[in-house]
């Protein structure tokens, strides 16, 4: 699959226009220009400053509109009241990419409001506006530093933050580790219409980036954000850095998302440093760490993580439980560590030379560092006298790093897991029965309608599974057992059932699995019942409810609300008129009244926050699609989204394909799919990709069609068909479904590489409107391409397929 190319306007700009730069000492413009000129950036820089024809030795323009030619990037440090005119000029001159840099926290509310209004008005329709903090943009490999901060060292870590101080903190960690930055941008998460998920997609797949740090933004679309993370981590490891307050439930949800999307999480600076050490080092996953210290160190065992065993060796007579007795010389410490590393059961050693007043600790550290460079097994050294990835300030940091390394390996392995098939077929939910039970407000009837265990309210439970709506992540399921909390997110899979059953120590997960399938069905039916709880006590399951309050239909209430709205409307109009009258006589009073009138207008157009249900962070399975297809040969097939539980059926479908059909589909000779490929094809992100299975009357898969993301502007399709279904018209109908779904997800184009010998697929692509050209890389391939923006038939409404959403 081709990887996304770097957008030149950001990653390799040739011409940058700086608006409102100056030479006034310590001003924002002066600091930005000074840093930019102090780096070896080889592109063209054009400053714009009224009444100045040169700035810092550069030829400058007094009027932005008079600059000839084009530019890759506009950097503006102008005050917010100039934004409207600036954006109009950029649109007129067809300069689409604008970076606004401000000390946003120092702006008065009125100026901030002016900035937000102008940005909302002009962003889009060919104009891309990004609001940055003073940490701005840095690409050290290009010598590009558009920020007020010192130049970052060049390296292999991408940084995306929403705070200048966080950027500075991450840079400090990397310098301590003797590492550097490949790309950096610091957004104002509140103001910028282009979000962190947009920029993460723009980072794409770069050979210069080995790891990334993303500062989590709670305010943006979480579904879009975690979809972007999931796509990014398919090629580059990522740490999601949390700087806001979290509770036990928040952390459980984030860990559940980490399993789905394959990222590490840091909740503090020490955690971030440990995570970066784990990703940037060559440390292997370890199950055991041997500890040797010239001071008692068994206290570390209380800090042992669940995924790492700490071992304190005994080497009589001089080593007792990892403690080198006496006062070991540097040579003795070196010899003891060497002997421990030579043992066949040793995986790695953490050496902890204690501080001494005679300087031996420094000599010991140097000797151990040399040994670490010579041994094949990992030797970690805890000492304040050295820095770098394998050297640690304290032993807890080393242990935490290895724990993160093990977590990263476990998350990577989890991406290869395939969900087992559903154990049985459940009775479908009957929406009328559910609504009838809700109208009766009878919890027992509701439990029966949902096919759940009988209703009973209990205060104390051995195990509790609770489904509710989270204000940030939408529907979540929390499991509480033995003082711990785990979480899962819909749409649930059998893997979720097995994991939560292990967490709660359940021997039989059948009831839990049925509960999760009911919750997924409720999500698919868009039914919000409030909080649903499954309790386990004494081997007995019961269901409990905290039902969502029904909407009121009180005529008197509506009349009062209408009268209040009318009063607010009159007040807003009067304040707006007064603001216009006072505009020139008292600007401050005018601005206050204008803001107040706009707030009243927004209040009139808004609904109470309690009525709004937060959408789930993971995209649901598509619901609005053809359920059956009637074919030319008289047969009827059932169409469903391909689910994780279909992995076994998908593998059997591939095994049953003709060998030549397998080759034309996968372009390799294989009898079945490797485990990693099968997992990737069945564990889909229905926010930006989709797959459809056609099944015969016996429930066997006879065709699979899909599209997968190449980059934010293009997706790739694939279709496989059972031999006996050829000529039935099924392939054409599946192709139409794929094209429609891709367009509804916002892709401008869809493409595929097709073997020239695959005549049926070549004809199908031509019939479907694709343009076929010789491949640029392989002589035996055609490149099929279809512009989806020109297809008016694909713009049908389907909210479950995210209609009209532009992929970014």
From TrEMBL:
Pfam name, any one: Acetyltransf_3
Stored SUPFAM superfamilies: Acyl-CoA N-acyltransferases (Nat), NAD(P)-binding Rossmann-fold domains, Succinyl-CoA synthetase domains
Keyword ATP-binding in annotation: yes
Alphabetical UniProt keywords: ATP-binding, Ligase, Nucleotide-binding
UniProt-listed CDD domains: NAT_SF (cd04301)
Start and end residues of each N-acetyltransferase domain: 637-791
GO function terms (MF aspect): acyltransferase activity, transferring groups other than amino-acyl groups; ATP binding; ligase activity
InterPro entries reported for this sequence: Acyl-CoA_Synth/Transferase, Acyl_CoA_acyltransferase, CoA-bd, GNAT_dom, NAD(P)-bd_dom_sf, Succinyl-CoA_synth-like
PANTHER family per the UniProt record, alphabetical: 3-HYDROXYPROPIONATE--COA LIGASE [ADP-FORMING], ACETATE--COA LIGASE [ADP-FORMING]
Entry protein name: GNAT family N-acetyltransferase
Organism: Neisseria lactamica
Higher taxonomy: Bacteria, Pseudomonadati, Pseudomonadota, Betaproteobacteria, Neisseriales
